[in-house]
Design a protein that fits this description.
The protein is of the alpha+beta class. The chain is built from 9 helices and 20 strands. The strands form 4 sheets. An 8-stranded mixed sheet has the order 6-7-5-15-16-17-14-18, with helices on both faces. A hairpin with a 7-residue loop joins strand 16 and strand 17. The longest helix is centred in the N-terminal third of the chain and has 17 residues. It is globular.
Amino acid sequence: MPRTALVVGAGVFGASLADRLARSGWAVELVERLVPGTPRSGSGDDTRLIRFSHGDDVWHTRSARRALQLWRELDPTLLDQRGVTWFARRADGWEAESERVLRAEGIACERVDPGARFPGVRDDDLAFALHEPEAGVLFARRATRALAARAVQAGARLRTGVTARPDGERAVLSDGTVVEADVVIWACGAWLPALFPGVVDLRLTQQDVFFFATPGGAWSSAPGWVDYDGAVYGHGDADGQGLKVAPDEEGPPADPDAADRRVLDTSLARARAQLAHRFPVLAGAPLAAARACHYELTADTRFVLAPHPEHGGRVWLAGGGSGHGFKHGPALAERLERWVGGDEPPDPQFGLGPRAVDVTLRTASVTMDP
């Protein structure tokens, strides 16, 4: 008999794991309260950057590089490999550490003139610009749905429109069904703290994303970009919506159920100021679209990938990914398969319990409040 797994949550973490386990011969049930890739989830935006720079963190650099290969295997059209350029404000900062690790790992990178890639870019406050040619943009909503679809093709059962609550080593669905499995994985993103109070500690914040209309041409091929010390990232017009500008400072507290999904005036003002600072030629660009989403982050911005302390390895918790975790989804599923199957011990850096505030692994140098 095959081993059985229940995965609750069909965001990128849950869908990746359901896909991986189903293709490895597990009998998998994947439960999602809405639909895979819903805009209300942390995996539901149109686009996410995939990049390999993680400062001096080799583990996450390797994970992102492995994930690139797995995304290509899933569907190469999910990736727009236009590259990502980092605007380094310091000669010896996070980007320099990233460059050192990338070169040591054999991952392509080069110092470039940002003016060759972005029309009218301001660079007088930059020490250098670092370009990753193999990086780019993932079409996140499509990618999440593609993972769930491949899981179903491999034999997984997908149930949508039902919620679940933990009951020891079982899950009770909103229709009254009690589901048992050899392993239950709760990959519920921003909903994890409410499901497991006192066990999972995540900071939930609202983060707004904006798209500004551009004249086309060079902007349609402009790479992704990150101003780490400026706490903002984005990419060129990858899907006809415009230039993406995402302020990455910590937003106000968010409730994933109660939030009305309206962007904040303060966020729009910050995005316009950041746009005018880095791309002065677009200072007056019309707003084409806006999204309100949420982050669910640990203090050190590393993920939660750990067994529940009370259930002997039969219940696992997966979250803390937010936007910066999306790119890693399939690569994390590879590791989780070995961990939940008992083939390898879990990595303690993703364990439960207190986390020390650390240099962030997302696209901003700001840290979470202790």
